[in-house]
Amino acid sequence: MKTSSLMKTSYLRCRLGMSQFVVRCWMASLLTMAASSLGFAGEGDRVPQPPLDIPHYVIERAATQITIDGKLDAAEPWSAVTTIDSFQFPWWTAGAREATTARMLWDEAFLYVAFEAQDAHISAYLTGRDSPVSRDDAVEVFFACDPMDVSIYFNFEFNAIGTILDRSPANNRDGTWNSEGVRVGISIDGTLNDSTDTDLGWTTEIAIPFEDLAPHAPRLPPHDGDQWRLNLYRIGGEVNPQFSLWSDTRTERPQYHKPDRFGMVRFSGRLAGSAVTSP
Questions:
Q1: Measured between alpha carbons, how far is 93 from 102 in angstroms, rounded to an integer?
Q2: Residue of 220, 273, 265 lying closest to 55 (CA atoms)
Q3: Which of 95, 139, 164, 265 gets the highest tally of CB atoms within 10 A of its CB?
Q4: So what's the pLDDT on residue 47?
Q5: How far apart are the C-alpha atoms of 118 and 85, rounded to whole Å?
């Protein structure tokens, strides 16, 4: 009888131990899923989870050469890629909300970005490199090449006469760095700096060289499938200033330096306008 009681006691203790073990595993699993849903990375998974509401875009390869002249010629691959026409106006209070569209391409040497901005009164005065061009009519491209750390990001800003302000993660973004190979072309459909007439708009064509982004990218040029975090902005203007963007930064006032709110772009080896994938 004593032996039977001991066996029963041992059995119950074993069952209790197993139950506690199962409960602990279940609770650990719940905590892991909760952390994942909140964007926390677990051991061996250090890539931050991007917000679910950010926009996405696939950047296809340019099948032919692009001339940076501010003219999106029909012979160039711009007409074959998806147009971003969803710029938002989160801080709008009054005045006309003027449309901006954008497109992107890439090749072995450059990231290409094109903006088309409707603008009834185009204005730009600043001409010195790294001048505060956002005071003029301007468009801007911000991006982090490594989605594992969006705090390491670049910004390229261009006013309506092609003046450039650029910043890199180098030297705490102090402005001593400049991209030597960046190119920009502008075409204006209207009269610059004349508020007495009505303009139609302006087009910006940009080529950002990959070689100038080292060492702040995992690999350059990007490979098929690589992802960056990126945002596109329009700002400024003497008459009816604009503050619009592709991915909403969710800030109370206009704030573009919000890398955690950058959209997501994926580089594709597919040639724009073709079913062919580049080797």
A1: 24
A2: 265
A3: 139
A4: 57
A5: 12
Which residues is 244 bridged to in the sheet?
A: 234
CB contact set of 94 (below 8 Å; sequence gap of 6+) = none
- C-alpha 178/C-alpha 199 separation (Å) is 32
With beta carbons less than 8 A apart as the criterion, state whether 145 and 184 touch. no
DSSP SS3 for 24: helix
d(CA 238, CA 123): 6
Query: How many other CB atoms sit within 10 Å of the CB of residue 104?
Result: 22
User: Tens digits of per-residue pLDDT, 214-255?
Assistant: 999 999 999 999 999 999 999 999 999 999 999 999 999 988
Cα dist from 242 to 89, 118, 254, whole Å? 8, 11, 10
- Partner residues linked to 231 by β-bridges: 142
Which of 236, 241, 196, 201 shows the shortest CA–CA distance to 94?
Answer: 241
For residue 155, give the nearest of 165, 145, 147 by alpha carbon. Answer: 165
Locate 153 and state its tokens.
Answer: 């990001």
The residue count of the chain comes to: 279
Enclosing H/E stretch for 268: strand 263-271
